[in-house]
Prior knowledge:
alpha+beta; Neuraminidase; 2 domains; 4-stranded antiparallel sheet; 6 helices; disordered N terminus
Amino acid sequence: MGKRRKNKGGSPQKSPQKQSPQKGAQQSTASNTTPPTSNTTNAASSIHNRRRTPLSASSTKGLGSRALIIVACLGYFAQKQLAPYFLPYGPAVNMQEGPPRFQPVDPSNDKLRGKHGKLTKIYERLEHDVGDDDTEPLLLQGPETVLFHPKSGTMYVLTQDALLVSLTDLKPHNSNNEDDGATTKIVTAKTTKVANLGTGRPMGARFTSDGKTLYIADALLGLLRIVNPHDYPKSKVEIVANQVTDGNNTTKILHANDVIIGPRSGKVYFTDSSDIGPERMGTQQSWDTMYAATMDWARGKPTGRLLEYNPKNNQLKVLATGLWFSNGLGIDRDESSIMVAETFAGRVVRYHLKGSKVGTVETLVDSTDLPGFVDGLDCGPDKHSKCYATVPSAAGRFTELHRIWRNLVLLWPRWAFARNGGSPYGGVVEVDPKTQQIQYFQDPNGADIAHVTGVTVWKNKLYLGSSKNNFIGAYDLKK
């Protein structure tokens, strides 16, 4: 914004009235008989009197109008020239339906705690003591996505270092860990790097039904594919799609997030969360997806999409637009609808693929039924299976900021953001797609597990991944 400039020349004055020749002559004669000091005094008095001449109402109004015009012009210039520099993603906007209205956390609900005997934590088995010179770095860093091979049942994870890692030879760990407590069961696994997926940031992945092809949603690169990943490095990572054409408009895929495979058609469905892509974290190899997500929340503009890729004809199309950070995905058994975690709307929605509602979106779980934003999502493979969405953290006091304050957030540099993510919390919401009944599993204080960002349903268990933890949680649904 430009500052209003002060008028150094003073206020506009009335033109002095012309004197008659007679009065002018009298003043001239008097000046010849008056000492010089008197002339100086009279001149100073005349100037003093002119300065005190009051402004008329019309003059004041004219000055104010000109000032407003100048301020408006400066404001317009600042918006056009400076806003793209200070607000590269655009200014904050008001959400049409208003910000999410979350419910408070119920501290009595601690079903996700280890003391109930349903939670197991899977850690990487260390072959050497930490600190040995020959110790390789841990592979299980930020294992957000957990997936299983449909034929062999082998467990895999995607890590923050863009690695596909297998976990095999799971063994109970007998010693008690002070951080975990004696009530939480601990299991260790042998970890093996299967493939390096490149320079991007893989967020979600699924095997095809035959287990021969792995599709990956990469926040930086788009939709990827690797055929026979166990033959790596012979089998290369392919970029399937990094842009999409919708009508006459072609746009880049800037924040691919999660992916699922249609159980009947074999089509690949994936989310493009935002038109704000991740940035590299300083000199590190990893990418900062949290900053991009925070910018998307602060701006409040729904640019998320649901996309479909058909491997049979290599065609890509847009199914749904206008989503507030489309995130995790789940699909029902007959492939009639897709469940989407719409993060910054604070809800889970259903996109209809078939039936009378085809092409429409309806709400399954609203923010008033949730303690915080949803992230990852998955649905069970059976006919009567339920869907599960993760809640990484409880809603804080800043989730309902006005648009003006969110503009200030957009002005903050990336290094100014705290990385603690608020108070520790871990939660999963279960929803029945048919009855829309819900229940929660949560660790209200994050004592045993916190910041759950990914969930995978496999053989009556929920496998809980995280972009921050160095372990995987396994929650037994049948106990």
